[in-house]
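dumping this here before i forget
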Amino acid sequence: MSGDRPSSSDMGSNVGQVIQSAGYKLGKSIGTGSYSSVRLAYNLKANNQLVACKIINKDKASSKFINKFLPRELDILKRIKHPHIVRVLNMFGLGSRVFVFMNYCSFGDLLDHIRDNGHYSEDKGKVLFKQLLSAVTYLHSWNIAHRDLKCENILLSKPDFLMLTDFGFSRYFHPGVTPPSNTFCGSAAYAAPEIIEGTPYNPLLGDIWSMGCILFIMLTGIMPFDDSKVMEMVCIF
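structure:
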């Protein structure tokens, strides 16, 4: 990936100049979502080291996301620091966009890795799952629930080194103090029974259920539940 060259910016020269003054230059797009995209970027202050830049377009997002989820995500990203959580290097807003620069994980996400290479052996799976457990334990020690744990949100900077990402649904939760969550977050295939059933839930416990689903996929290469048949999942639970 080191041979990639920066693409011409499609967001205007002024934006490009501000980004460059912050020490970065944007490269090609490597992912898109409903209201955000991810591009390669070059850290000009670190010998053009490759990093990733998540660009959030507030014009495309709902008011609930802008007023509730986005401020919460940015606040959490500023506070957390763990070797197995993608580290935010810089973030700033320009007009309707928010730019978040973070580690670039060149080996892609865990789901794609399993699809391309097959499931992990117990020994190798144990190493990676221990890293995930360390990251989630750290978050929970700060009363932070991720609420969207899934293989797609686990990136690999090396084949045997994972980093947790995407805190768009994360929130603070203090057991016994904070009211249970009511928001359906994440993917049905990884969701705990109470979330599927639509009942209030403890999001910290929901994270633990999701981790079990991730471990199942790591060791078998298949999904534990068919999320295309949500009503059948409710009956199973």
